[in-house]
């Protein structure tokens, strides 16, 4: 049998925790013998080298039943062992040793595999927290800017409504002023032009002809208008602005009456 295999179980041997038979040279785990770890630790090197397994002891002449392997007698000074029957799957390690091995393996796993990964996860979480904090700051800034822009938009909307109302009022007033201004104006056409003409005197002469005399102080403005068609042979029209709409209406009525007389007269 190979020296690296226990003669009492199929498990591999640990040289520091094994015994070799002085006669057959078979090796055994200490746990596969009847020797306790306490007795094994107090055995000298000479006692370990002279140790005989139960199989070899059973082959000795039987003068008595002192060394019978089947009897569960106390361990003698020679540290007699009993061979495990039929290489049963006995454990060569105690429960405490197994627990210690498991603890050691778990410590190795934690130190070699889990600790670096946990450290990496912590770094990732720290980076994520930093990014999240920066993102929260950006969101807060966006919210603040949005609130300011909303306030400005409301202010601009109110100003726009105010300006629209003011513009509407101005347009109404301009329309009224334009109507009032037009109510004072009259356009006289087909009056021959003269370079040295006095349009106020011309209007006064016309008013005398139609029997609606107008004083010069009642004429606010008097001028010829530009032609729409510069090639037209017609003289430019005269725009006259009177002092009141009543005077304008009287001038128009007198003109209409005069034209009717000339037409039917």
Automatic annotation (TrEMBL):
InterPro entries associated with the record: Zinc_finger_PHD-type_CS (IPR019786), Znf_PHD (IPR001965), Znf_PHD-finger (IPR019787)
Record-level Gene Ontology MF annotations: zinc ion binding
Keyword Coiled coil: yes
Presence of keyword Ion transport: no
Organism from which the protein derives: Parnassius apollo
Xref: SMART domains: PHD
Highest taxon, organism lineage: Eukaryota
Stretches that traverse the bilayer: none
Coiled-coil boundaries: 118-180
Keywords (A to Z) from UniProt: Coiled coil, Metal-binding, Zinc, Zinc-finger
PHD-type domain segment(s): 3-59
Listed name of the protein: (apollo) hypothetical protein
């Amino acid at each position: 049998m190979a020296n690296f295999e226990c003669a009492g179980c199929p498990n591999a041997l640990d040289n520091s925790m094994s015994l070799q038979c002085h006669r057959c040279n078979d090796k055994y785990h200490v746990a596969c013998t009847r020797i306790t770890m306490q007795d094994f630790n107090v055995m000298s090197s000479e006692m370990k080298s002279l140790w005989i397994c139960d199989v070899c002891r059973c082959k000795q002449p039987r003068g008595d039943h002192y060394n019978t392997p089947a009897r569960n007698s106390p361990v003698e000074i020679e540290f007699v062992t009993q061979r495990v029957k039929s290489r049963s799957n006995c454990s060569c390690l105690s429960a405490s040793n197994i627990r210690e091995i498991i603890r050691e393996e778990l410590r190795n796993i934690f130190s070699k595999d889990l600790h670096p990964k946990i450290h990496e996860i912590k770094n990732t979480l720290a980076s994520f927290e930093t990014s999240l904090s920066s993102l929260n700051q950006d969101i807060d800034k966006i919210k603040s800017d949005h609130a300011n822009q909303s306030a400005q938009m409301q202010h601009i909307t109110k100003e726009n409504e105010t300006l629209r109302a003011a513009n509407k009022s101005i347009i109404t007033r301009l329309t009224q002023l334009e109507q009032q201004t037009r109510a004072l104006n009259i356009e006289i056409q087909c009056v021959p032009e003269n370079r040295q003409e006095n349009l106020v005197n011309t209007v006064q002469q016309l008013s005398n002809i139609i029997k609606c005399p107008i004083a010069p102080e009642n004429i606010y403005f008097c001028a010829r208008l530009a032609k729409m068609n510069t090639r037209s042979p017609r003289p430019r029209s005269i725009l006259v602005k009177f002092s009141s709409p009543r005077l304008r209406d009287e001038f128009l009525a007198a003109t209409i009456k005069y034209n009717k007389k000339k037409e039917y007269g």
